[in-house]
Amino acid sequence: MLKVAILGGSGYTGFELLRLLLSHPEVEVTAVTSERSAGLLISDTFLHCRNPHLKFESLNLKSLAKKADLFFLCLPHKASQETVAFLYNAGKKVIDLSADYRLKSARVYSEWYKIPHRYSPLLKKAVYGLPELYRKKIKKASIIANPGCYPTSAILGLAPIMGEDFVSTNTIIIDSKSGTSGAGRSPAQPFMFCEVNESVKAYAVTAHRHTPEIEQELSALKKENFKVIFTPHLIPMDRGILSTMYVPLRKKISLSNVQKLYHQFYRHEPFVRVLQNGRYPATKSVKSSNFCDISIFLDERSRRGKTLIIISAIDNLIKGASGTAVHNMNIMSGFEETAGLMSTPASP
Amino acid sequence: MLKVAILGGSGYTGFELLRLLLSHPEVEVTAVTSERSAGLLISDTFLHCRNPHLKFESLNLKSLAKKADLFFLCLPHKASQETVAFLYNAGKKVIDLSADYRLKSARVYSEWYKIPHRYSPLLKKAVYGLPELYRKKIKKASIIANPGCYPTSAILGLAPIMGEDFVSTNTIIIDSKSGTSGAGRSPAQPFMFCEVNESVKAYAVTAHRHTPEIEQELSALKKENFKVIFTPHLIPMDRGILSTMYVPLRKKISLSNVQKLYHQFYRHEPFVRVLQNGRYPATKSVKSSNFCDISIFLDERSRRGKTLIIISAIDNLIKGASGTAVHNMNIMSGFEETAGLMSTPASP
Amino acid sequence: MLKVAILGGSGYTGFELLRLLLSHPEVEVTAVTSERSAGLLISDTFLHCRNPHLKFESLNLKSLAKKADLFFLCLPHKASQETVAFLYNAGKKVIDLSADYRLKSARVYSEWYKIPHRYSPLLKKAVYGLPELYRKKIKKASIIANPGCYPTSAILGLAPIMGEDFVSTNTIIIDSKSGTSGAGRSPAQPFMFCEVNESVKAYAVTAHRHTPEIEQELSALKKENFKVIFTPHLIPMDRGILSTMYVPLRKKISLSNVQKLYHQFYRHEPFVRVLQNGRYPATKSVKSSNFCDISIFLDERSRRGKTLIIISAIDNLIKGASGTAVHNMNIMSGFEETAGLMSTPASP
Amino acid sequence: MLKVAILGGSGYTGFELLRLLLSHPEVEVTAVTSERSAGLLISDTFLHCRNPHLKFESLNLKSLAKKADLFFLCLPHKASQETVAFLYNAGKKVIDLSADYRLKSARVYSEWYKIPHRYSPLLKKAVYGLPELYRKKIKKASIIANPGCYPTSAILGLAPIMGEDFVSTNTIIIDSKSGTSGAGRSPAQPFMFCEVNESVKAYAVTAHRHTPEIEQELSALKKENFKVIFTPHLIPMDRGILSTMYVPLRKKISLSNVQKLYHQFYRHEPFVRVLQNGRYPATKSVKSSNFCDISIFLDERSRRGKTLIIISAIDNLIKGASGTAVHNMNIMSGFEETAGLMSTPASP
Known about the structure:
Four copies of one chain form a homotetramer.
Chain A: E1 2-7, H1 12-22, E2 27-33, H2 42-45, E3 56-57, H3 61-65, E4 70-73, H4 79-89, E5 93-96, H5 106-113, E6 126-128, H6 131-140, E7 143-145, H7 149-162, E8 173-178, H8 193-196, E9 201-202, H9 211-222, E10 229-234, E11 241-248, H10 255-265, E12 272-274, E13 292-299, E14 307-314, H11 318-333
Parallel strand pairs in A: 1-2, 1-4, 2-3, 4-5, 5-7, 6-7, 8-10, 12-13
Antiparallel strand pairs in A: 8-11, 9-10, 11-14, 13-14
Helix pairs in contact in A: 1-11, 6-11, 7-9
């Protein structure tokens, strides 16, 4: 059994990760930290926790380093910078769910996060943990920068065609709709029930921090630096991200050929489902699962040229965070890739 | 008191219209038809109905024509075609909330609605009932084609700039998110609570019937025929439409100049609120009201050229249907334009 | 025009009160206080506010006293104690929406609210502002203690039979289900969207502060002191309270006779609707209205004796707070009782 | 591997059962029937279905009988009567999720379900499948009448004290709040999103068919025939039942003693969690799990005697239907009781 620890286990992401790990056949959770819940028994919250003596504990890196071989970090960005460095230097494997090691450029990081990156040499060691793109590198990595929720939905939706010459990068639009769990568990007026319920609105237009992450990965696939327009919206539901992506085309293509590219690209992927022609992804169809559903549509009406409309759906807490973290662990540790992750979407 | 009748009063739109008319100072509702509820007292449903003897009745045009001077039609498309013609020929004023008289071209109508238009000469008589654009024509009209909900949100969002030369029509994208009341009241599996709740999905991609209506009106404003991409989404809430619109630009502009255009264009409009820079429209902010909230953003990051991002929010049952119908009646009848329509959004 | 002021106008109750008053034909809102929003224009929030210069201001009693003749207090309990006293001594009329003047006994007050009542002599001056019970006293009152939301639903549901000898007071059970707006607008983790959504739970079992208020009024009607069991539940919706009440019977009665008592009791009441036999109140049927819907059922199956099951539905923010406050003002000021309150429930 | 079949697999309960069985380590699903979806591949819906050739098929009992040894019936009541008989006579084990074999008395059955029971001799063979009460009988049974959702929540909440002499049966009240999935998947106007959302209401007051089932089991525990009052309510959420139960007492008891009885009664039960004093069950805390959470409160304020308030929470589709069905199968087949059922509640 692999010994793992979760640092920051009392937020929605940490909680979901613990839930997944507790039913994982190959791991033992040996420590879970939470400043908020330190001292409380984990089995009080998680009835079938296999270790009835395990308690939430405070974040003491020295003693934690002795308890596990692989660490999941669900800490806020900035706090992760140093913790990753400490654990890496202690010879541990780290899967960091914060944004701290996702951007390859320390300059871009400080531009969007408004703080310097104090461990920039480590950025080169970190692998962007999207298994569908970086499986081989993940296998050998010591530091995984687990992708953001919006970027996961966008990159998986666009990856199969980014290398194709029919794709114009002028201008790709990503219009995303997210459930409210993405906003975290800390009390804040805009996320109170009566504010979110029965409403939909956009936020952080042209300014969301997931934008450079999407651009970094799509640019790498396209082998060309370019910008995208990313507009997130808040939806009155707990979980799920639906991204509707508009891709302008440089030349004529047929819808069925594009669909074939997607089926081909993801043919061996256990968690990406390219839907049949005309079917619509819905966040409920992937709820509580590690699946990403994708559909491709072609607008042939608009004037010069045409536009591809790609729609993807994920569960933001699983495929968009904790599920992919477990997926990365499986790859790094030589476990079956799907171990602990094959639960069917729960609907309704 | 103006005598008015509602034909098709037991759906969500008809019900909302009745609600608005019952608190209107200048009208008397003399008949409400409903095949479903024929024979039931209206005051059973609407406690303070000022006519305690009024019952839902069956749709009998001959007898109805004697009861009112202005008719609101909340009938399904196709059924409205003939009813409008009958009432027009009987010298009545008609406000048709169906799609039957919105499209100027009978050919485009039959292409999208899959039936012929049997009263195409009347299409020229019908005025597209968006007061912000056609106030003068509405004043003299006998037939009003009341706009669709999505088109209202899109056209109001884009009208102030369509005549500007910095706007490129290649390709304008309208990504709309709608509450579920737009789907009507008839039972259907996809709109059952457990299917809609906790989910978001797109539908009718590249194929929604409101597309040609949006294109007709934007093309008229631009004085150039062009197509748009319109993608509707279903949101787990009762009411509201948020439209996020992406407009490519032909030349450089400043955000504040565009905002000035909007403030200028709507400066005398009682129901359109152009929000301050940086504020976000939310459907909850216009719930149960006749307001349309609009914000303008400018993306300056994307490669060649820039993109305007316009966001508008309306209540689909009021500004997107029954409220505008009352607004049209007010204009046609010389009432104060805002009569019966100034209720403040109810939040939460 | 009656000059009125709202003290504490930025919570959900204050906001709803302002909304109602802005469409009231007989009043002018001359001041609205809010520590949170002091200095902001009210017309920024309320577009059609008839006084475009009015701003949210800080709570300065001396200057406020000059601005209005009737004051609505939407302050937290405890803060209201002194403010009511000040305004009363200044010769103003006060409608206090807090709990501070509802309980006749200062001892009971301090037992449940854990603070002394420092103005207990004024308790005798205060009239419990439930118009269906105290219309005559309200007319002459200077201090109105506006009822709590749960008590309104419970007392209206039980009042018509409390004087009947078939009612046993051993033990009346009130099981209430409330939307989340009752919890107020301040951020708190238990009322975050992801905590409330998709869940239902009881809270404050045997310990909710509305219990003594219900008991005081029911005991007065019964002319006998007794206790009830009151269990509130939190429901994932914005507005509405449904109370299901179980009343044990001392002797046999027929359902239709009880229904007649209810129809008789409320026959002149504009806001209470006793539903037809077999119909169910639903919070959606009274949403955004000042109505209280009531149905009566009789369980004839349970062993010895029988049990009446009374169900009532109100909008907690209107009939359960601000609507009744306006109703009280109408009565105190000699306005038409229904002025500003006859909006039909908005559904969906 | 045990071969099992699901008859009626396309409703919410059948779907959830299939989801649970697909991740169960000891069974193979060899057939799933659905008139609606006959001919469609199951793996189209359930990606990781371990049998990629399995299709939804029509209900043909003769051919089905050869395919499996244990059958789950998710058919409507009445249809189940005959199917159970056929399979029983064919020597198969049957777990019937309908109501057809739950009531021991054919007379009571026909009184509530308005049809005769044509296989009443089989009623004696059927075991009421609530493992916490009938584990030993379930082990040897061939026909399991799987409990209803409301009865599960009520019986588990009351079982530990029914044998105690401090409990009065005059009159126990069960006030239940249920999510909407309990109403099934077939389209019906009252369960449309816009009807259920933002509303709560009671239904079937004094007349719900789960009443005799609750009475049968509580009477058996009490060794005395008595009636209860059961009031179900519809809540705007997908899953979950919260039952608030009011139990009058014959003599004084202490809360802590009652809590001890509960802890004692359920000490070996893997799926019942008696919460700590003062904690509240919430449906979200058991969502997507087979757990039943229970809390006990004591009202000491009400006049003569006192009242126990018991609150229980379950997921209606799992502990209230499919999870218990799997639990019964595990017991009948000698599998580990918790096999396939230990998923932690998913929250949010």
